[in-house]
Amino acid sequence: MLPLLAALLLGCGNAGYYAQAVGGHLAVMRATTPIDALLHDPADDPRLKSRLQEAQAIRDFASRELALPENGSYRNYADLGRPYVVWNVFAAPELSLQAKTWCLWMVGCVSYRGYYEQHAAEELAAELREQGYDTYVAGVPAYSTLGYFDDPLLNTFLRFGTPEVARIVFHELAHQQLFVKDDSLFNESFATAVENEGMRRWLAANAAPEQRAVFETQRARKAALAALMQAYRERFHVLYEADGADSTRPTVEQRVAKAALFTALRRDYAELKASWGGYAGYDPFFANDLNNAKLVSLALYNELVPAFEVLLTQQDYDLPQFYQRVAELAALDKAARREALMQLLPAANEARQAQGRVTVIVPATKGISRGKSAAQ
Questions:
Q1: Mind spelling out the 3-state secondary structure of 317-362?
Q2: What's the pLDDT at 6?
Q3: Average pLDDT over residues 56-61
Q4: pLDDT at residue 300, as a whole number
Q5: How far is residue 71 from each of residues 74, 97, 106, measured CA to CA in Å?
Q6: 210: how many CB neighbours lie within 10 A of its CB?
Q7: pTM of this structure
Q8: pLDDT for 67-123, tens place per residue?
Q9: Residue 327 burial (CB count, 10 A)
Q10: Residues 6+ apart with CB under 8 A from 280
Q11: Residue range 113-163, pLDDT digits in tens
């Protein structure tokens, strides 16, 4: 491992950034303890042991029932003593949804910059704001090393409860199953589709009816919010970049129109929240500075998920066959991959409408930004 890390540092111009990344990850790995050892230690907290046992059952389920990689990931545990493992910085120009990207060794270019210390992320965000960018710093409870290391179970997501542990483990193992360099939208949408199918199966096998009902309610809220945000990304895109009258507006007028759109977004979110009976789980996202960086940070987790779900349906929910079909898409060039998935969105709309769901997925206009977050 040490020669690999040395090559990483020496081969990249931004040695300072990579040094904190390597040092941060090694600190995480040094903090790990095999879960089996913790379960057999009489001095450990019984509540922690119970959660770890549940997590190991989830890990076994992931490989046995979802055909996800069987390896040492999530067989160790680390308490980092903080709420997040990393903090990601997102940035977009003041009048554009074209996310700022950074190119990273092994994963390609992504629309985020991750730091193991929050103050470092905030410092970069401040620098970018001075350059005229909208910025957003998001805490991340988990990330994947794509199988290069045995990713540990962390207190940063164990604290959220068993269903959330299942969701994250399925999502991150999906990245180990398949990952395409330089295509964050493809990677995250695929992993989210696997996560959704994994949760459907895991809840059916392990959860009480009331737990399944709670999860379905949460999923419906998440889908409704995703549809709202995508609709507004389209409206912002028209304002900023599309051909037409709006694209020729002076900067001052665009700023006024931008502010008006964000006001409308907050109003529509308030109406959506009211339809949920006042559920306030998304309030923190809307309470602080709502800007272009926040819009692009959410795009990749939802935009192509319905297309992958149609693809899964076409494979009769056979996950190994689904993985093979996705691998065939991954072998295409980026434009062809995107086009193939876009062609599946009308079928996704028809399926949703047949189920009584009125959400319509609008294919992204050419040029809309693509984001990447390691959060899920």
A1: CCHHHHHHHHHHHHCCCHHHHHHHHHCCHHHHHHHHHHCCCCCCCC
A2: 39
A3: 98
A4: 64
A5: 9, 38, 20
A6: 8
A7: 0.85
A8: 999 999 999 999 999 999 999 999 999 999 999 998 877 678 888 999 999 999 999
A9: 12
A10: 273
A11: 999 999 999 999 999 999 999 999 999 999 999 999 999 999 999 999 999
Residue 121 · residue 137 · CB < 8 Å: yes
Strand residue runs (E) in 111-174: 113-115, 133-140, 153-154
Separation CA 79–CA 28 (nearest Å): 9
Q: Which residue shows structure tokens 């290069």?
A: 148
CA 93 to chain centre: 21
Structure-token pair, residue 369: 């930004």
Two structure tokens written together for 256: 């006024």
Per the CB < 8 A criterion, the answer to whether 201 and 65 are in contact is: yes
For the chain, give the secondary structure using H, E and C: CHHHHHHHHHCCCCHHHHHHHHHHHHHHHHCCEEHHHHHCCCCCCHHHHHHHHHHHHHHHHHHHHHCCCCCCCCCEEECCCCCCCEEEEEEEECCCCCCCCEEECCCEEECCEEECCHHHHHHHHHHHHHCCEEEEEEEECCCCCCCCCCCCEEHHHHCCCHHHHHHHHHHHHHHHHCCCCCCHHHHHHHHHHHHHHHHHHHHHHHCCHHHHHHHHHHHHHHHHHHHHHHHHHHHHHHHHCCCCHHHHCCHHHHHHHHHHHHHHHHHHHHHHHHHCCCCCCCHHHHHCCCCHHHHHHHHHHHCCHHHHHHHHHHCCCCHHHHHHHHHHHHCCCHHHHHHHHHCCHHHHHHHHHHCCCCCCCCCCCCCCCCCCCCCC
Is the pLDDT confidence value at 169 over 80? yes
- pLDDT the model gives residue 314: 95
| Between residues 360 and 113, the one the model is more confident about | 113
| Residue 287: predicted pLDDT | 84
CA distance 320 to 365: 32
**Tens-place pLDDT, residues 254-284:** 999 999 999 999 999 999 999 999 999 999 9
Crossing angle of helices 345-354/305-314, nearest 10°? Answer: 80
Residue with tokens 């290391």: 149
Tokens linked to 189: 């949408």
pLDDT value, residue 43: 76
Q: Are 82 and 141 in contact, with CB atoms under 8 Å apart?
A: no
